[in-house]
Design brief:
- By secondary structure, the chain is mainly α.
- The protein contains 25 helices and seven strands.
- The protein has helices spanning about 30-35, 50-55, 145-150, 190-200, 205-215, 225-235, 240-250, 260, 270-280, 290-300, 305-320, 330-355, 395-420, 425-455, 470-490, 500-525, 525-530, 535-555, 560-575, 585-595, 610-620, 635-645, 660-665, 670-675, 680, and strands at about 100-105, 110, 130-135, 165-170, 175-180, 390, 470.
Amino acid sequence: MDNASESSHSSPDAASVQTQTRKAPRADRPCDICRKRKSRCAKEPDQERCVLCTFHNRECTYNDAPQPRRKRADFPDDGAASVDGVAEVEGRPPRKKTRGTQTDDAGISLDQAPSSSVRSLLDRTLGLHRTTHFKYIGPSSLHEERLLDLIHRFYESGNGEDGCKFRSVADSTTFLSKSDRHTLFSGDVDGDLDAIEHAVRPHGPGLVDLYFRTVHPSYPILHKGVFLEKYARSYREFSPPLLAAVYLLAMDWWEYDRELSSHKKPDAESLLRTAMKALTGVIHRPKLSSVQAGLLLLQRSGGDSWVLTSQVVAIGEELGLHLDCTTWNIPEWEKGLRRRLAWAIFMQDKWGALIHGRPSHVIASTWQMPRVSLADFPESAADEDDKEGSTEVEKGRLLFIHLTKLTQIMAQALELLYNPDQTRIQEVIATSGIQGLLELVKPMAVKLKEWANDMPQDLRMDDVKTRKLCSNGYLHLSYFVTEIIIHRHIIRSLTPETPHALRELCRGAGKARLERAINFVEALRPEHLQAFWWFASPKSLAFIRTYGGLLWATSSTDAEAEFYRRKLEDFRWSLKVRAKGVSFVAAALQEMDESLQDIDMTQSPVGRAGHMLGFSHMSVSASSILGGASDAETQTPVQEMALHTIYHGHQFDSVETSPSFNVLELDAASSHEYLSDMDQNFFFPGLSQS
């Protein structure tokens, strides 16, 4: 959108432009591409094309007429500011943009105020200030709320450099303001940036392009347009760990890019060392860019770390991301960015707690973020890269939103079934047996079914566009992992006292889940495999085999045990032939080998000491009923399999219904009828039946 000042001389064709605004000279107008992206159109001296068109090697055209200016109610006191190309507030004379525009660490562009009487947009942010950081003051801290209210009568905001220590953004919501200059390692920023850029030179632009083609659309926590604009000017405009994280994550697709793959790959280990050192420095001056860097580093191949996840959660709480910022006195675009990052932290914490068997740091009663919506994403289909092998932007936005909803359901199941305090579970099983357990978890299964029914067509596995990558796989994988959390606990809770029909029903559904999960992997197309799969995917994939190990370990006959052994061998081979050039599959194979290498499946488990009866009783005991935070360190090999199997369950092409729902809705008397219909109920359109 045009943010330049109107010229005092209209262009020759001004009369043809609708509305009463005059068309500005070409030098002051955004080109057609920048107008569609709603981003600032900047040119370097003596250049015919803007920096964005130069970066993408596209023609800079000016064919579209300017649109009518819109009121920007978010900044009534800062008419000169511009965010994502939004026009100035009506009633103030528009001002010409300059190349001296400042940008924040998270990728939001802004203009310097024309005079000291008008504060720049940076002074209104909490997490994006270039020289100041703000830390949330909690209600139980040493700062008394009543005293802060008195201070705020004189100081409405602070920037850490004007003598004001506090900033109030809403009633009872105050932040402590400090200058970045007074923090540890603040003098290392330029040196770190130089070292990071030197490590990848001259492949930096190629890596940035690769990142925004393959990763960003499926994990949209940056602002693409402004990131590219900043990068075209100088790499020194970034937070060091964020720049390094983008490079490192893109390097996971190095062989995928034709141009990059013809060169030697940069030293990722050296770059990672610099990134982690830089991240250690920026946590002392927390910014939203610090959260972005941590989250991206966690997504890279081999980057999953529960310790780093815990640090990212802590940084988010320092920034107040756990609070609802809807009514805060901050720009609307920062509210949207905060919501996206808050939910990204929530998902990282919950799924990390699940796959690592650790207690979650994010508590629902203290993390009170509103739901994220499409309005919180700055990009749309207009920002999509047309280059071959790119990922769809619109699909990525929907994926992110639906994953947040799924994570809420998973977190509920995790809290109920994997909490170290199993008193409630034990009481239910003791009084009502497996049927009582099915009733207990039924509401979560119903929520899963509703979530699956609400899934848009764009997110189904068979929705693959020509020469486009499709990241829907990790969303579906996460769905079936959530199912297995519930189903695995049911399998482990079966005892010889369980009615035969009900026991066969549960085990039959478990067998079908394994077969469909294996079929899902075999049906993955190159467009799925080469796309972005988030941090939990390798362990989730490995748990298909581990889940089969649980069914093998609890087999009632030698023939049944042999069936599962062969299935697992076939599954491992299926992964092995798909692992070349697919990092998450290769990592899954390594996880499998490490978790099951000491188990000899050539020997049937039937008849071994503690086989069916002992294992089932262990599953309902106080010490090891669930693979929660406390028992991850003490599992036997068979119990370890049961712990991990939960994560990689039933993966189909679409997730409309599943046997687990039927298991929870039927009693033992209905089991035979259900089992006869199982195959029909289990099939989902879009996946191969083979």
